[in-house]
Design brief:
By secondary structure, the chain is an alpha/beta fold. The protein folds into 2 domains: 6-281, UDP-N-acetylmuramoyl-L-alanine:D-glutamate ligase (3-Layer(aba) Sandwich), CATH 3.40.1190; 290-425, Protein-Tyrosine Phosphatase, Chain A (Alpha-Beta Complex). Helices cover 37% and strands 19% of the residues. The chain is built from 14 helices and 17 strands. The protein has helices spanning 18-26, 45-58, 87-103, 108-122, 159-162, 166-173, 190-202, 248-267, 276-281, 311-323, 343-350, 370-377, 392-397, 411-425, and strands at 35-40, 63-66, 78-80, 83-84, 127-131, 148-151, 183-185, 207-209, 215-222, 227-233, 238-243, 290-296, 299-305, 331-335, 357-360, 386-389, 404-408. Helix 10 packs parallel to helix 11 (343-350). It starts with 17 loop residues before the first helix and ends with a helix. 45% of the residues are buried.
Amino acid sequence: MISVEAKQEYKTMSLGLDRIKKFLLDHKINYEALKYIHIAGTNGKGSTAKVISEILISSGYKVGLYTSPHLIKINERIQINSLPISDRSLKFLDKKYSNISKKYKLTYFEYVTALAFVYFVKNKVDIVVLETGLGGRLDATNIVNPIVSIITSVDFDHTEILGKTLKQIAFEKAGIIKKNVPVVCGNIKNIALTEIKKVANKNNSQLYCFGKDFFATQIKCNWKNLIQQIKYCGLQNKIKINFNLLGLTQVYNLAVSLCTCEIVSKTLNKINFNKIKNVLKNIKWQARFDVRKLIINNKKCSFIIDGAHNMQAIEKFLGLYKKSPFYKKKTNLIFLMMQEKEYKKIIKEVSKFFSNIKLLKINNDRAIDINILKKEFSNYINVKNISVYDNIEQLFSSIKNNDVYICLGSFYLAGTILKYIEDKNG
């Protein structure tokens, strides 16, 4: 869809702010005129961004949403009022800026981010909900001065870039904190939160923390309708909500989203909290404990698709899975990971829950060779129960009636599975 392939995103990564800033300023893209909510965190960024975006839309704002990675089409990353940028608009922007961007040596992520800024400025959005790509301090999105900064979580991921300790990783995430701009933090471990507090104090930024300044608890989970009821106690509002995203992690993400909206309501016109209940009951965000009941090749089956790709996310997923009715059914794990991930630790953990493993080859140079994965799984699981598939058609031809299939380890794998399902089922 654009001139640079997505699979080059990680390989061409080079953190820094100067290239994208110069590109935008030289081409008179007045991105600084827009209002932003800026989100960093190891996990939960995308869900939080989606929830905030939908709440703002329901209150009458024209909202830009920028997230990454995409699952099926790059258009998903750049949205206005929940509508992805059209193929036509994206092609137009790419044709106009692709050759120019090379002179500035923009990386893939910087280029897509720059196109998002151009699109939002040209369409005069009221506010942009902006998710960081990696880290925060040197992430291409960190050229903005937001009205609120958010750090959803801090845990181990991309340690080869962000640091080997939670303190170092927290410092990188806290790099999005700006002077006199309030900061909302999710359920974050004390060692990381201490580092965030240091940066917030240095910038004279008011800090709002989950469990101290705002709270949320799950009342119950309705597995039949795939919805959970949550009680939120915030800065000013108390509300009971039926939420369409499942799991304790989503309780934290929802709390962060609602607290942020309470703060934003002081800067913009008041957020319409009366409309929030209906918005959250019907919200959809793919590949987050995403349950699909399907008929594939005339066989009924259930797929649970999740992009969890680090230990924190995997553990949260498994904790929710164990509480679900799917835990008691015959279950297969479809698995893949990228090379920079802690795959050995994660395989050891997931092998406690699954004894039937399906490994799928995908067209991504970053993916771990499935023969390496097979060897690692064989340390815990009978090799007869580990299957390897060269393509998605082979995988789906092996589907059995009434089985449950869990897809874990990578958003790239999740996107591959989702695309096949959508192509077959519409």
